[in-house]
Amino acid sequence: MQGIPDTIKLFNFSKKGLNFSHIYQVKDFPRMKKLLSNIDDEMKVELSFYIENNSIPCIEGVVKLNAMVNCQRCLNKVNLRLSPSFKLGFLKNEQQGETLDSSFETILNADEAFSTIEFITDEVLISIPMSPMHPHKCQSYQDKERIKQEKHNPFAILKQLKNSHK
Ligand SMILES: [Zn+2]
Questions:
Q1: Is residue 83 a contact partner of residue 67, using CB atoms and an 8 Å limit?
Q2: Is 146 inside any structural domain?
Q3: If you measure from the C-alpha of residue 77 to the centroid of ligand 1, how many angstroms do you get, rounded to a whole number?
Q4: Which of 2, 14, 28, 126 is most buried (CB neighbours < 10 A)?
Q5: How many Å lie between the centroid of ligand 1 and the Cα of residue 78?
Q6: Cα(80) to centroid of ligand 1, in Å?
Q7: How many whole angstroms from 134 Cα to the centroid of ligand 1?
Q8: How many helices (H) and strands (E) are present in the chain, helices listed first?
Q9: Where are the membrane-spanning stretches (predicted)?
Q10: Rounded distance from Cα 46 to ligand 1 centre (Å)
């Protein structure tokens, strides 16, 4: 195992069967830095490169991180433990994909070289739920709004005024 280079060289790494692992911080990933609030937290990444069926470069990997995002029910922070894993086959054409078993996700027309940071970001972002929420039943922010409105109910004030003029 060695640190992960900044640029992935797809065929080059796959032919050599390289394995990498590195501990990043959330803030090393510009697009994630905007979405998550725990930017100093660690993110462990492992990547393996190999050739499948003598011709298809593949990347298998797993990322482990905590993602601090806003709960869509109560709007407070919720900490999600994520460990997205992926198994990708990079194809020259669709026919090539027929030789891969169904455990592979396939990508067409990949470049030979691409950014490691952007590649990992894409894999992590699709693993974050669209509407993250606390696992427990937190209070809906809409209910909280309702309570606030009741407290400031103008009729309640009118009632008070009436009473004070009695
Ligand atoms: Zn919540």
A1: no
A2: no
A3: 7
A4: 14
A5: 7
A6: 12
A7: 4
A8: 6, 8
A9: none
A10: 31
- Give the chain's domain count: 1
Which domain range does residue 96 map to?
7-138
- Decide if 91 contacts 59 (C-beta within 8 A): no
Expressed in angstroms and rounded, the spacing between residue 126 Cα and the centre of ligand 1 is 21
Q: Is residue 132 part of a domain?
A: yes
Residue 28 CA to ligand 1 center (angstroms) comes to: 27
What's the pLDDT tens digit per position in 34-79?
999 999 999 999 999 999 999 999 999 999 999 999 999 999 999 9
Q: Name the burial class of residue 99, with classes exposed (0-12), middle (13-18) and buried (19+) by CB atoms within 10 angstroms of its CB.
A: middle
Retrieve residue 166's tokens. Answer: 């009695």
Residues 100-114 pLDDT 10s: 999 999 999 878 999
Are 72 and 131 in contact by the 8 Å Cβ rule? The answer is: yes
**Per-residue tokens: 132:** 């993250």
Is residue 61 situated within a structural domain?
yes
How many angstroms is it from 38 CA to the middle of ligand 1? Answer: 17
Q: Is residue 150 part of a domain?
A: no
